[in-house]
Amino acid sequence: MSWTSIKMPGLKHSLASPIFSASFLVIALSIVVAATIVLNTSSAAPWDVTFVRKWGSACLLSSNTSCQDTSSSPQSQTQNLGDGKFWGIWAIASDNSAIYTVDVLNHRVQKFDQNGLFMNKWGTEGSGNGQFNRPSGIAVDLQYVYVVDHSNRIQIFNKEGQFVSSLGSSGSLPGQLNLPEDVDVDTNGRIYVADSGNHRIQVFNPNNTTAIVWGSQGTGKGQFDYPQGIAVPAPGHVYVADSHNNRIQYFQLLNNCPQGTSTITAGVCFVNEWGKAGNADGQFDRPADVAVSDGIVYVVDGNNNRVQLFSKEGTFIKKFGSECLIKTGLEPSESCKKPTTNGPLESGELGDGQFKFPAGVTVRSNTIFVADNYNDRVEGFNVELGPQPTSQMLLQANMQVQANAGQTKTVNGGE
Length: 415
Hints:
mainly beta; 5-stranded antiparallel β-sheet
């Protein structure tokens, strides 16, 4: 099977499958870490997305594949083997000063500044405290870094990578986990986990005790089919990338569910859902992650190799990205393009602004950082935020599109 024909399996199969492991292991590679590229965005119009930087390349530490830095840059002289490189970058998170990435098959976390300069790393393969078995999700708050480990636990570290505590064990009882995929934390210290193999969401109190559990395998409201991404922009507001159901579900945690919502279980209200399988605007093929910033919902649409932007109600606003495999040591796929002045990506190198199964997203201010999984890199984009969709826009859109879970309203042209 050629690289250009492989579609990334989602969810529990994504990190554990032989395809994921073997496809990477058979390739001998070599590369220099990509340089940061900054483009002029002064002429951007509302909702324009502009490529601004990238960093990362391939390195499998266990076999020293492509890990040696052959450049003579000042940074390379201070790096240890493999710093700033990845083998299957998956999740990504950020705070005001740093970007944190999950380097799956190197079983570690890497920390960068927002320009992509390597700062720190921690983790090795294993089951001890501070070790990982294919970590798959990450979140940060003011004090701690939370890492999802496929050993069915969440490990908690301080910002310098020192182990603090962990929660979870293998199983299906409350507080137990089965191949968890993602984690987020709210400003009250509650921890939200996409417990993928159990097809549910679990919420833990700051003392690591179980607070709320909901979900089962299915297609109904509050059911999931391998939920992969989770975002909590404010306490009790939960967005879930329900990957195999190709939709986003939005919940609020309230004692009494307001009119227009549905009670899923005590304290959990279903608010909305959008998306279905496909590649049209607002449709998905294995949504891998979700982030929310300034009322905009960013969804990584994995097998469609793009990121889609929505209002918090699910109204489609914007999309960007297309398929390009430009992995170290391989000939770029035929779909790789060099940005031109005719599009939102004004200039740059071959493959800039394109993806091969993007798997994670985080947003700081108006900069979007995307974990480009197969290409072992992080790409950064600036978005020129426009006006939020108004109730009049929504009314007009509703007149054009039947409102249901399988269809999505579009405003601002969608381009």
